Amino acid sequence: MSKKWRLELESTLREMSHADPQIVASAIVRNDGLVLASSLPKGSDEGIIGAMGAAVLNIGNRTVNELKRGELSKVIISGSKGDVVICGVGDSALLSAITNPDSNLGLVLLEMRRASEKIQEILTQI
Predict the structure, then answer these.
(1) Coil/strand/helix, residue 81
(2) Which of 29, 45, 89, 112 could form a disulfide with 50 if both were Cys (CB 3.0 to 4.6 A apart)?
(3) CATH number for the domain including 111?
(4) Is residue 81 classed exposed, middle or buried when 0-12, 13-18 and 19+ CB atoms within 10 A define those classes?
């Protein structure tokens, strides 16, 4: 992936965080766990976060398929210090957002949907 595409993906993550300041970190990850772009806290291990995000989305997909619940739209993991929201971007990537504990998940999902559309456009050009 060229530096130009990575910069565009990182810019999309920044725009998403600026649109909703409750999003404190985010990443775009290929389905195989490779991080394409991120805005993660210092000290975070991109590789581990990418692999976990891909694994969670994979398990979510398998779960909805086995239970015949249609197509997976998102996985939300809630913790005492905030949420991790993961959604698919096309067939080859995922978008992960980490939020503050008092975030409005409806607004977070709205911004993630907007960002996903931009990300998908960028990824089709790679």
Answers:
(1) coil
(2) 29
(3) 3.30.450.30
(4) exposed
How is residue 126 annotated by DSSP? -
Give the other-Cβ count within 10 Å of 125's Cβ.
8
Name the domain count of the chain: 1
Residue 46 CA: distances (Å) to CA of 40, 65, 101, 114: 8, 28, 22, 23
Q: pTM for this structure?
A: 0.93
Q: Could you read off the pLDDT of 54-91 as tens digits, one per residue?
A: 999 999 999 999 999 999 999 999 999 999 999 999 98
One-letter amino acid identity for 100? Answer: N
52 within 8 A of 77, measured Cβ to Cβ: no
Task: List phi, psi (to 5°) of 32.
Answer: -90, 0
Domain extent, residue 32, equals 3-125
